[in-house]
Design the sequence.
């Protein structure tokens, strides 16, 4: 995992109040029930912070946020440089 | 006001001014589309012609499973133009396992003997597979081609007492109950709401992120605007939940005046919008934000008020309502009959819990709990509170809420057994618990263990069934419940399940993670906490079934950290 991916994993563990859980870049988060839709906004904000990109939520689906690896791929696909 | 008392919803749509804006589907600032009433009618007629070409006729049930947006709404209106009976079902959630989805869909189309199931071009094939739709049911992909469609009516002369549409709750259990509503009852409900809220299509504009398969989205944000000729700006629920701040953005940009929102929204928006951006928005256009579909919490309303009063939000805009699909929509509304807003009372907490009565105390008294009302019955609606023994209770006593009105449903479609269970002497038994005080209705909980997360109904049995499918869980020994989380302003799903034998608890983490996945795959619901317990832990009823309320009490006793979740405000 990259340093940013590692930070995202730690953030997810904090968000779901399970500090001891192991989350690697391919751990399923949404489709495994660990994360619900109300947490997606927090993940998007964190993803914008970590990538420095602006990510329009209108272009993102929950399946695009299912793993840490997918989140960063999504950011590359739909993210735009900040103005 | 509804112009010239239309007899059907289609009449009402036909009477709308052609050039007035109707629906704006908002995805983000660079991606939104607005159609006028005239353009909406034209597209609906194109869809009606397509449905008719595929055999749809008056009275046929038509299931619509399309993403929230203008195309889905034009198919729905097009079906009504034919006199057919449309029903929106939730679009498949990618988390749900295809075979589970297919079996739910097969069940509902069979119960409805649907003529057509209309899906969009992008509908995932794996969700259909070899779905058993029944001999008379045909699958139709909606056309993206909306050209053509003449400005002439093709409506058959259908009477107001014919069914207008069906409305379902989500989940396996909810899908068995298609609430059947006629044009007449829907229009009566809209007339009552229009009068209570002084709705005027020439000056009002509705904001909504509500799902169209839910009564609040379907009635308040589609049928009411359609009948009263009110513009609507609409997001999909998913689009909004990923950017809650967009609600402020859209209301500001379009000067929206009305919105119906479940309780958690009143906390979620201020907490998920950075404070430094609040001043960019302006809520002075808003006449009413109506807290509806979850029990109303004073703390959530206060938080929204504190956050946004400086940007023009009027305190008297914060209102509440009690609504259900079986009554078309609203039963009560606050701020009517000369009152300014939802009433609030403080009551002795111990007496509320042990005696189920409201003994009023002064604000701030130790051990007091506060309740916020959902307002007073709309005209044509009556509410009574009834004990377990079926006796009518006086004001200030907690019991089941029963409703009698001139907009009650015709029944659950093709399920006269379920309809009979829900009705007593012409009263609809809501399954909700509440009390009346000074003629205001307060909703305090539910008799039937229904869980409501973010305004969405979740039946505990759907979750319990999924969990009990795990080999480590003793058959039928799982109890799901909703515990209120004050941080989110809504309930969270908590599950307690008995393992087959004590040694299985050593693998608790693995079992938990499997159960979580099972529940998501079959019910699409994320369980917040799972408690695995040794054999014989769950409290059983005399019939040998898990007793949900006693099990809940036992769990709360063993896990005092959960106690804070069940306390109400104050």
Sequence:
């Amino acid at each position: 995992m990259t340093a940013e991916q590692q930070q995202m994993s730690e953030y997810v563990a904090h968000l779901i109040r399970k500090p001891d859980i192991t989350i690697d870049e391919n751990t399923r988060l949404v489709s495994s029930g660990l994360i619900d839709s109300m947490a997606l906004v927090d993940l998007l904000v964190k993803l914008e912070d970590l990538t420095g990109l602006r990510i329009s939520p209108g272009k993102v689906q929950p399946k695009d946020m299912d793993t840490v690896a997918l989140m960063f791929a999504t950011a590359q696909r739909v993210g735009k440089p900040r103005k | 006001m509804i112009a010239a008392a239309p007899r059907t919803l289609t009449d009402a749509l036909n009477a709308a001014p052609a050039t007035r804006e109707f629906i704006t589907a908002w995805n983000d600032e660079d991606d939104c589309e607005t159609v006028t009433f005239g353009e909406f009618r034209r597209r609906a007629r194109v869809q009606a012609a397509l449905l008719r070409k595929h055999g749809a006729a008056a009275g046929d049930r038509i299931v619509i499973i399309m993403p929230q947006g203008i195309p889905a709404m034009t198919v729905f209106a097009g079906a009504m133009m034919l006199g057919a009976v449309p029903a929106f079902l939730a679009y498949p959630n990618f988390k749900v396992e295809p075979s589970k989805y297919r079996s739910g869909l097969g069940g509902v189309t069979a119960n409805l003997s649907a003529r057509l199931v209309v899906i969009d071009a992008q509908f995932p094939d794996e969700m259909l597979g070899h779905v058993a739709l029944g001999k008379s049911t045909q699958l139709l992909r909606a056309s993206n081609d909306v050209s053509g469609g003449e400005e002439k009516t093709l409506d058959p002369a259908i009477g107001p007492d014919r069914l207008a549409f069906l409305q379902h709750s989500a989940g396996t259990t909810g899908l068995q109950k298609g609430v059947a509503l006629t044009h007449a009852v829907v229009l009566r409900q809209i007339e009552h709401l229009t009068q209570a809220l002084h709705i005027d299509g020439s000056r009002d504009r509705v904001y909504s992120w509500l799902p169209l398969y839910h009564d609040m989205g379907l009635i308040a944000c589609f049928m009411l605007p359609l009948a009263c000729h009110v513009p609507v700006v609409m997001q999909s629920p998913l689009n909004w939940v990923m950017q809650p701040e967009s609600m402020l953005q859209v209301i500001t940009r379009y000067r929206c005046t009305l919105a119906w929102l479940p309780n958690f929204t009143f906390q979620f928006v201020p907490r998920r919008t950075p404070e430094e951006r609040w001043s960019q928005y302006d809520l002075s256009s808003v006449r009413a934000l109506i807290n509806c579909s979850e029990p109303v919490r004073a703390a959530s309303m206060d938080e929204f008020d504190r956050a946004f009063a400086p940007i023009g939000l009027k305190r008297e805009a914060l209102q509440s309502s009690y609504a259900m699909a079986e009554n078309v929509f609203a039963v009560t509304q606050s701020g009517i009959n000369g009152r300014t807003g939802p009433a609030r009372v403080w009551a002795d907490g111990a007496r509320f819990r042990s005696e189920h009565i409201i003994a009023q105390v002064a604000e701030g008294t130790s051990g007091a709990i506060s309740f916020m009302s959902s307002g007073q019955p709309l005209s044509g609606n009556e509410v009574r509170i009834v004990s377990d023994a079926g006796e009518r209770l006086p004001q200030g006593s907690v019991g089941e809420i029963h409703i009698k009105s001139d907009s009650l449903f015709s029944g659950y479609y093709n399920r006269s057994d379920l309809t009979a269970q829900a009705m007593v002497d012409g009263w609809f038994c809501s399954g909700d618990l509440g009390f009346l005080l000074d003629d205001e209705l307060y909703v305090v909980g539910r008799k039937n263990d229904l869980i409501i997360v973010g305004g969405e109904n979740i039946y505990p049995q759907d979750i319990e069934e999924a969990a009990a499918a795990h080999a480590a869980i003793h058959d039928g020994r799982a109890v799901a419940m909703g515990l209120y989380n004050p941080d989110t302003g809504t309930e969270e799903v908590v599950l307690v399940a008995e393992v087959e034998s004590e040694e299985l608890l050593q693998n608790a983490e693995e079992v938990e993670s499997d159960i979580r996945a099972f529940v998501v795959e079959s019910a699409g619901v994320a369980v917040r906490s799972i408690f695995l317990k040794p054999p014989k832990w769950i409290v059983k009823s005399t019939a040998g079934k898990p007793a949900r309320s006693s099990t809940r009490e036992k769990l709360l006793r063993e896990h005092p950290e959960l106690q804070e979740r069940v306390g109400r405000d104050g």
Summary: The interface with chain A takes residues 27-28, 30-31, 93-95, 238-239, 241-244, 246, 264, 268, 272, 454, 488, 513, 516-517, 519-521, 525-528 of chain B (CB under 8 Å). The mean pLDDT of chain B is 90. The longest strand of chain B covers residues 473-485.
